[in-house]
Each structure stands twice: as C-alpha cells, then as structure tokens.
Design goal:
Length: about 160
C-alpha cells in the first residue's frame, strides 16, 4: 500500500532499477544507494510500508518519501521521511509528498508520527511544520543532535 497520487506526484515501490536515481539523493553519511534500496524493500515486507519513489505524473524522478520505523532513545516510532533531488528542491514537492504520506499513516492506524531532522536543516523543519508536525524534543541520533517533530494522528482529523 502506498499513498494515492497528489496533484503533481505519484508514488510507487522502490526497485533495484531505481539505483541511478537514488544515487542522486543526498542520503545519510555512509549510506549506499544499494543498501538504501535493500533496506526499503525489507521494510515493505516487515512493516507493510517503507520509502516510496516519488515521481511526476510524467515519470520524472523527484525523490523518495514514506514511512520507516526508527529507534529513538529506546522507543520505536513511525517516521515520515523524504528526500528530493537537488534540482527540484524548493518547489513544494517534499511537503506535498509528506502530507500524502501522513494521511496514509493515519489510514494505517499510526497513532503518533514523527520526523527526525538535523538542527541545521531548516527546509525539512519547514516541511514538518507544513504537514502539522510540531517540535517535541532534541535527541542524539546517528552520531549527532537531531530534532524530533511529531503529531498524534486521529482517524477523524484532517490536515
């Protein structure tokens, strides 16, 4: 299951054939494109969700956006995450995709959704706020400080 299409983008499962496109994204330091795809595909099997490829309705690769399970201070949380290739940033694609993913999370029964963002990533903090997530706390994650933005999701609530 993945989010329905939005006005400008559609979602699909990530596949091995996406390697060249995934390599254009700025992933976490030390993350390989091959490992990213393999982990994403395992998440589909283990959790029924993962990161999905986002592309325009014409088929142009935009990035990825979806849900992952993240351990934060000993607690497992559902995170909405996104990456947009650099040439398409600042056009609203991340917020559009993340908003659709938030609604998918609600439909899956996720009770609390978070985004884990580096303190210097102001653009992603803006996306989190746009989709209704609010700053909750600062943690240490992946070797450095990270901000947790989150929101409780309720089936009857709309963004």
């Amino acid at each position: 299951m993945f989010p329905p299409p939005t006005t400008r983008i559609r979602f699909r499962e990530m596949a091995e054939a996406d390697l060249a496109d995934i390599a254009t994204l700025e992933l976490f330091p030390g993350a390989s494109s091959e490992g990213w795809i393999a982990r994403t595909r395992r998440n589909y099997t283990q959790h029924g969700f993962g990161l999905w490829v986002t592309e325009t309705h014409a088929g142009e690769f935009v990035g990825d956006c979806g849900l992952t399970m993240q351990e934060v201070e000993g607690e497992w949380l559902v995170e909405v995450g996104w990456h947009v290739r650099s040439a398409l940033r600042r056009r609203g694609y991340a917020a559009e995709a993340a908003g659709a993913v938030r609604e998918t999370a609600r439909g899956l029964g996720v009770e609390h959704l978070v985004a884990i963002i580096r303190p210097d990533n102001m653009a992603s903090q803006g996306v989190a706020t746009k989709i209704g997530l609010a700053f909750e706390r600062e943690v240490h994650k992946l070797g450095g400080p990270a901000l947790i933005f989150g929101a409780d999701l309720h089936p009857s609530e709309a963004v």
